[in-house]
Amino acid sequence: MASKLLQLQSKAAQASQLVAKHGCTYYKQLLEKNHQYIQNPPSIEKCNELSKQLFYTRLASLPARYESFWKELDSVKQLWKNKGDLKVEDAGIAALFGIELFAWFCVGEIVGRGFTITGYHV
Predict the structure, then answer these.
(1) What is the dihedral angle through the alpha carbons of 47, 49, 51, 55, rounded to the nearest 10 degrees?
(2) DSSP letter string over 39-57?
(3) Burial level of 110, CB count in 10 A (0-12/13-18/19+)?
(4) pLDDT in tens, 28-65
């Protein structure tokens, strides 16, 4: 256990050295690359305005998303009605999608329990 702690400390020290060495350069490059998105002068009022624009833009997109959801649901209903015409490939894709959803659920449960498999904290 102590050796793993030392390894972890060593890796953390290496990572912090890497960030200290290249962090400023990366930060400057990131800002230069995305300068068109930066509002000058930066102010609280501008930030509040932009957050309101984002919120109300997302709110305005809800009817289109709602309509798209019902179209998708109708297409699934049509597939279910015509399940006799379903190809093996389509069924395989649906099964893989279901397995992937279940796997993400399991990962979420493990993360929610603090990265323990059984739920017991040691």
Answers:
(1) 180
(2) -SS--HHHHHHHHHHHHHH
(3) middle
(4) 998 999 999 888 888 999 999 999 999 999 999 999 99
The conformation of residue 121, written as its DSSP 8-state character, comes to -
| DSSP state for residue 84 in the 8-state scheme | G
| Domain layout of the chain by residue ranges | 1-38, 40-81, 87-121
Is 31 in contact with 38 (CB distance < 8 Å)?
Answer: yes
Q: Which two tokens stand for residue 86?
A: 């379903």
pLDDT at 3: 77
Scanning the chain, the segments in alpha helix (DSSP H) are 2-33, 44-60, 62-81, 88-112
